[in-house]
Specification:
The protein has 14 helices and 17 strands. The chain is of the alpha/beta class. The chain has three domains: about 80 residues, ACT domain (Alpha-Beta Plaits, 2-Layer Sandwich), CATH 3.30.70; about 80 residues, Alpha-Beta Plaits, CATH 3.30.70; about 210 residues, Rossmann fold. Helix 1 packs antiparallel against helix 2. The radius of gyration is 27 Å and the shape is elongated.
Length: about 400
């Protein structure tokens, strides 16, 4: 562009120490010129402000440039005014949200992820921090890359960098009410209920061995479940109360349910465990739906048999579809979370299947993996920040721990 020709637009970039009134002062100078605001971005890092404003260029654009520079000088800040033509219209094809979760999140991992996005022809349009404690979560707004190819490429890079990366298409589903379906053992809670029951029967080691083989997909789930349940024969039903009191809910589970219920989300738990435990757990956590196997109890004693059909791998997927229909959401709006081979059909049936601290076979098949020990990290994939969670909790009188001072 010729130095004397009139530009169509001006990009004004202001940087410096933040203070009250910076943004209003710049816009006061722009208002005097009667320009139209086309785009704006502002971020704050450690009290350092970066403000970018794209405006139409007035007839006397040099006068506006001088006014903006004078305002910046009075604020002790630095300003650049770039002349150009055209609006800042975004590319609409291949738009995705790429969420990166690390503990810690190192610069090398960010470099590698950004490199793979570039390899796909993608551009990072915007970056937002979702959380800085107890994990670091960053959300990248990416355009120009096919989400399916991007997901496959970033999954391999995430494993190499020991971080979690989720790729989701940028569409309205991320903002709408959704159904979240969770596995229970080793997902919603720590440990396996059947092993806790077996400990009271003196068969914990044997049951644990069978459970691990079943979760890796080496044994038929129904056959393995019936074999394990037979080892519980003769236990008094009061043991169920003792085991329930021993259950440790996964860190962040209550926060996740509490936060997303505020937004109208619905929750379901689908378990290969036992309804005598899961029904109580659902009531305790505020979960709307629950489905699990029912232990047969006769005269207050566990018989070692199961009542009715077994909730196996196919049964979990079937329950997910039934709950989605009851809630009134499409399967694309369902998020499923699990860790074992019997969760695979459920994860595949959902719009977003998340392998949570899962076996390798599950991580390879799921849409994404989360390997940090906090279940509420899931909310960062939905565009909800830690600051928003803590603000909502504070308004409800719930005190959350403060991050350590660095």
């Amino acid at each position: 562009m010729s130095p004397t020709s009139k530009p169509e637009t001006l990009l004004i970039t202001l940087t410096g120490k933040d203070r009250p009134g910076v943004t209003s002062s710049i816009f006061a100078a722009l208002a005097q010129a009667g320009v139209e605001v086309l785009d704006i971005e502002q971020i704050l890092l450690r009290r350092r402000l970066i403000l970018g404003v794209l405006v139409t260029a007035p007839r006397d654009w040099r006068r506006l440039q001088a006014a903006v520079e004078e305002t910046a000088s009075s604020l002790g800040m630095v300003v650049e005014v770039d002349r150009g033509s055209g609006d800042n219209k975004p590319r609409r094809e291949g738009r995705s949200h790429v969420t990166i979760i690390g503990s810690p999140l190192k610069a090398g991992a960010m470099s590698a992820i950004a490199g793979r996005i570039a390899d796909c022809g993608g551009n990072i349009d915007r970056i937002e921090r979702m959380a800085r404690y107890p994990v670091t979560a960053i959300d990248l707004h990416v355009s120009g890359a096919d989400p399916v190819r991007l997901r496959a490429l970033l999954a391999a890079e995430a494993a190499a960098q020991s971080v979690d990366v989720a790729v989701q298409p940028a569409n309205l589903l991320r903002r709408g009410m959704r159904l979240i379906v969770l596995d229970v053992d080793s997902t919603l809670i720590q440990g396996e209920v059947i092993e806790m029951l077996a400990a009271h029967a003196g068969h914990e080691a044997e049951v644990a061995r069978i459970t691990e083989s079943a979760m890796r997909g080496e044994l038929d789930f129904e056959a393995s479940l019936r074999a394990r349940v037979r080892l519980l024969s003769g236990l008094h039903a009061s043991v169920l109360d003792e085991v329930y009191d021993e259950i440790v809910v996964t860190p962040g589970a209550r926060t996740m349910v509490r936060t997303l219920r505020r937004l109208g989300y619905r929750f379901a738990i689908v378990s290969g465990g036992f309804s005598q435990i899961t029904d109580r757990l659902a009531a305790d956590l505020g979960i709307h739906y629950a489905r699990a196997n029912e232990l047969e109890i006769v005269d207050g004693v566990i018989t070692g048999e199961i009542v009715g059909d077994v909730v196996d791998r196919a049964g979990k997927a079937r329950a997910l579809r039934e709950f989605a229909e009851e809630v009134g959401v499409p399967e694309a709006a369902v998020i499923a979370i699990g860790d074992g081979a019997n969760d695979l059909d459920m994860l595949n049936a959902a719009g977003l299947g998340i392998a949570y601290n899962a076996r390798p076979i599950v991580q390879q098949a799921a849409d994404t993996s989360v390997n940090v020990p906090y279940l509420d990290a899931i909310v960062y994939l939905l565009g909800i920040s830690r600051e928003e969670i803590e603000m909502a909790d504070a308004e409800a009188g719930i005190v959350t721990p403060s991050p350590p001072v660095s």
